Amino acid sequence: MADITPRNLRFDFAPLDLDVPDEALGGVLRALGLSLTMPYLEPYLIRTMKVALRELDDPVLAEDARRFSQQEGHHFRNHAALNEHVRGHFDGATAADLRSLEADLEADYQRFSKERPLRWNLAYAEGFEAMTCAAALAAAEHRAFEGPGMPGGEIWPWHMAEEIEHRTVAFKVYDHLVGSYFYRIAFGAWAQRHYLSYVGRFAARMAEGLGRQPGRARLGPMERSALRNYARTLGPWYDPAKIAMPAGVRELLDRYSGMLEPRGAPAPPAAATSIGMPVMKA
């Protein structure tokens, strides 16, 4: 069994501040675009795992799938709260357009759940998890969540750390029930393009709403690490179980687990960010 702990935490968020230089704005808006997808993408992953559980004959893997789904449930609820702050930062027309894009994305995922076979949905789930794990590993390697923070504060290191913690589940479920390398690559790549297209559309609409033109993204050391990590997911011998936990991630996970102590027990202090200090609720 993988070491996966569902952590039912809730975050409060400081008012959104997007007064950042143009060269940094693109990355901030893409992160917020990612957040806007979560209340639709992650319930889709949970639905997919629920169907897969009917066919899993491995009780250990089934328990991992259940814990994966519990983590994803806590993720999307926190992102839904953050997204309220995101939409509230914009005028009514921009917020309505963001809502319309969200409805389109939800319609896609509902259609996938109803019309696509389980193996296709498992390939989508694994493609998404492989891509986001590659990015989370790079962020951990380069300590991207230390110092000045992103809008949303500690939701990002918490989510990143749990993505790494449950990195094996979607792959193992896919491998157990489907197993085809070529199917995984073909439909996983389609899933990644589909998902990233929505992130880009959200970011572009927010930039338009701000009346700003973000600078062209540059590939820094962290982005290059993410691309190298992603390239490894494409090989026939890829297995996320072989990926070691990066330095510092276990400490993050232990700290978030400590926030689940009974009420009245002192919780470890959260790291302040330049964008605001989130308040954690167990």
Draw up the topology in text:
Elements: E1 10-12, H1 22-53, H2 59-88, H3 92-115, H4 118-141, H5 155-165, H6 169-177, H7 181-210, H8 221-233, H9 249-258, E2 279-281
Antiparallel strand pairs: 1-2
Describe this structure in words.
- The chain is mainly alpha-helical and 282 residues long.
- It has one domain (22-281).
- Helix content is 65%, strand content 2%.
- The chain has nine helices and two strands.
- It has helices spanning 22-53, 59-88, 92-115, 118-141, 155-165, 169-177, 181-210, 221-233, 249-258, and strands spanning 10-12, 279-281.
- Strands 1-2 form a two-stranded antiparallel ribbon.
- Helix 1 packs antiparallel against helix 2, helix 1 runs parallel beside helix 3 and helix 1 crosses helix 4 (118-141).
- The two termini are 25 Å apart.
- Mean pLDDT is 90; it is low at 262-282.
